[in-house]
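Lecture 7, part 2: worked example. A protein chain together with flavin-adenine dinucleotide.
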Amino acid sequence: MAVILENRDLGDSMFLMITDHGVDSAPGQFYMVRGWDKYPLLSRPISIFDSDGKTTKFLYRVVGEGTDLLSKLKPGDEVQLQGPYGNGFPEIKGNRIALVGGGIGTAPLYLAAKEIKRKNPEKELVLYLGFENSSHAQELFEDIEADARFKIGGYITDIIDFKSHDAVLTCGPEAMMKAVFHEAKDICGEIYVSMEKRMACGVGACLGCTCETKAGNRRTCKDGPVFEGSEVFFE
Ligand SMILES: Cc1cc2nc3c(=O)[nH]c(=O)nc-3n(C[C@H](O)[C@H](O)[C@H](O)COP(=O)(O)OP(=O)(O)OC[C@H]3O[C@@H](n4cnc5c(N)ncnc54)[C@H](O)[C@@H]3O)c2cc1C
Ligand code: FES
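Predicted complex, written out as structure tokens:
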């Protein structure tokens, strides 16, 4: 169990939950989160927005019952966190990295950018973050030592010149990641996509979260959620 330190309403149905969970985790990993007792039955997968050894933060959007219950939790309330699960983003060899996020898919890119800069300060990072509507979620990204470019509405790919980059990390709606992959595939040597499927167990046991890849059906929770873009058959 972790204790909630803050559960901040950022507007546009987005919240930042800060917990006292002090376990280090890798960018792109996620927790199965629940802030309720019996119902809904399943915990909900939420990416790690930030983890610093003292706290773990989650950026989430209220879309249904589970996330609505999370949004009602107050400082001092307990939340159950199982994880960290999954394979996050690998070490990137490229030096000019684009991190492309759409909507709540921007969440794992904060820690990804922070960790790349911490390990390789010389690398050039550009964050391209698309939101349907403006909210205070944008401001969360402003303390990263990276050029952060925002697009409110429309297509995020409209503001990216892939020729300026040799590696791409992306997370967001599948249609957006598909478009990013197709525009970047002949230009950028490394492309990693973070897939989002509905999850039940989160640990590879139920096969409920498979995604179609060149290596056959793979479990998004255990084999992913991060895959090489060239491996995935996008829907
Ligand atoms: C690896 C992973 C990481 C994630 N990270 C985050 C995160 O950092 N922040 C965040 O807000 N959300 C994240 N999600 C999505 C989040 O898990 C869902 O929004 C949440 O489970 C919805 O639960 P709910 O009870 O509120 O809504 P439900 O009542 O279960 O569903 C409401 C609506 O959302 C759709 N939905 C639910 N889950 C998913 C899903 N996984 N993919 C696509 N559509 C879905 C349903 O079809 C339905 O239309 C992540 C999902 C995965 C798989
Ligand atoms: S959620 Fe059960 S195998 Fe992935």
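The mean pLDDT is 96. The pocket of FE2/S2 (inorganic) cluster (ligand 2) is lined by residues 199-202, 204-209, 219, 221 (CB under 6 Å). Keep this in mind for problem set question 3.
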